Amino acid sequence: MAFVLVILILLLGLLTYLLYSLFVVPRGAGRTAPKNKATLTWVRSIYGTSNKPTDLFGQTVAAAPANDGSIWITDAKTRALMHFTADGRYLGLMRSADASMPLQAPSRLTVGPDGSIYICETALDLVRVLRPDGTDAGSFGIPKPVSVAVSKDRIAVGSVHGFALLEKSGKPIKVFGSRGKGDNQFDYVHGIAFDDAGNVYVADSYNNRLSAYDRDGKRLWIIRTGAPANSATYKGGMLTPAETKGSVLKGLDALQLPLGLAVDGAGRVVVIDMYDCALAVFEAKTGKFVGKYGDVGADDGQFFYPVSVGYDRGRDWFTVADAFNKRIEIVRIPGSSRGAGTPAAVKRALAGPLRACLFPLLLLLVATITLAVSASRRRRNAATILPESADGDERTREAGLVDDAV
Question: DSSP string covering 294-326, please?
C-alpha cells in the first residue's frame, strides 16, 4: 500500500505540472521570431493516416474542426475527407455514402453547428453537404466556390467572382460583387467567416484586401493589406508587384497573399498569409492590424505556404493546412480565447498528454479505494472480535473459580 501511495503521489505531481503548463500559456515555441512577428505555440502536427510513406499527405488543402474536437481534412492526393481525433488519431475515410455521387475533388470545407460538413467542389461549381456518417444532405450550385462558412441560420460561400449569402436550404439571399479590381469587385475569395453577430468577413486574395459586412449586407469596412498580386508586372525578367497605394499595412507588416480566414474566440479576424507563412490578426470592429504570428520553415510551429485556417473555440487552437510541408499543424496564439481559457485548457488537456494519464490514474484511484475499503473492513472485524474474546476470557475465569470451589 505504501508503494502504491508513493506512485500515486508521483503521478499527481506530474498531473499538477501538466495542468500548470496548460493553464500558463508559453509565449513562444522556443525560437526567435522575425521582428515583425510574434511567436506562436505549437500543439501537434498530423502528417497522414499512418506512418507508412503511402499514407502520408500529398499537399494539404484544408482542416476543419468539428464541435466534438475531431478534425476533417482534405488533401490534394486523396479525393475524400479524412477524419481524425483532436489528438491526431485517424478515424477513417469518407467519400460519401451515396455511391452514385462520390466526392470528386473536395477542397476547402467547414463544419456547421449541427455537425454537417460543407465541401467546396470548385471544378463542379458545387457545394456538397454531407452528414458525419457520410449520407448526402444535399448540394447547391455556386460558380467556382473556393471557400465556405456556416452560421446557425446562414451559409456564406466565397468564389472566384465574389461571395454569396444563402439560407440553410441553399436559397440565395444576396450575391456580392463581380470579378475585378474595383471597390465592389473581388478576385478569388479564398477566406470567409461569420462572427457571433452574423457579420461576414471576407479575404479578397488577389486584390490583397479584407472587408466586413453586417447581417444585412452593408459593408462595415474595407482595407487594403498589401500589394495586389493581380497587378504584378514583368520587369527585367522578374515578376514585380505594383506600388502599393492606400494600403493600411506597410513594409514587413503588409500581407503578401491572404488566403484562409477564421474568427477566433475573442472575435478577432485571423488570416493566413500564404507567402509570408504567418497568421495575421485584425480587430473585427475596425480592421485594425494586431500582429503576425509564425515563421517560414519545416520545424514544428513553422509554415511553408500555408493555405487555410480553421478555429476550434472549445480548445482555443487553430488548424492550419501547411500545404508544402504536407501536414496539418495545430497551433495557438495569445489573446484568442476571450475568457474561455479554463474550459479550453481542460479540453486541450483531454486531447493531449493528460489523456495518457487518465487510465493509470483511474487504476490507482480504484486500487486506493479498494485498499481503503479493505482496511476499514479489517478494523470493523477486529472491533467485533475483541469484545467476544473478552467475554470468553471472563467465562473461563468464572468456570475456574467453580472448579476450585468444588
Answer: --BSSSTT-BSSEEEEEEETTTTEEEEEEGGGT
Give the integer Cα–Cα distance in Å for 357 and 13: 12
User: What is the per-residue pLDDT across 284-307, written as a single tens digit (0 to 9) for each?
Assistant: 999 999 999 999 999 999 999 999
Selection from 56, 73, 75 nearest residue 319 by Cα: 73
Residue 274 DSSP one-character state: T
Do residues 211 and 222 lie in contact, with contact meaning Cβ atoms separated by under 8 Å? yes
**For all residues of the chain together, what is the average pLDDT?**
85
Residue 19 has phi, psi (to 5 degrees) of -65, -40
Check residue 301 and give left, alpha or beta (phi > 0: left; psi -120 to 50: alpha): left
* pLDDT band with cut points at 50, 70 and 90 for residue 24: very low
Considering all CA atoms of the chain, what is the largest pairwise distance in Å, rounded to the nearest integer?
134
Q: How far is CA 246 from CA 199, 227, 286, in A?
A: 24, 10, 16
- Between CA 158 and CA 155, with CA 309 as vertex, the angle to 5 degrees is 35
pLDDT digits (tens, 9 = 90+) for 106-122: 999 999 999 999 999 99
How many Cβ atoms are within 10 Å of 175's Cβ, its own excluded? 17
- Checking if the pLDDT of 60 tops 50, the result is yes
Give CA torsion, residues 165, 168, 172, 176, to 10 deg.
10
The answer on pLDDT for 229 being more than 80 is: yes
Is the distance from CB of 248 to CB of 225 less than 8 angstroms?
yes
Q: What residues are paired with 140 via a beta bridge? A: 127
**CB contact burial 269-300 (16+ within 10 A = b; e otherwise):** bbbbbbebbbbbbbebeebebbbbbbbeeeee
6 backbone dihedrals φ, ψ, rounded to 5°: -65, -45
Nearest to 204 by CA among 194, 190, 184: 190
**Cα radius of gyration (the chain):** 30
The CA distance from 321 to 171, in Å, is 30
pTM score: 0.78
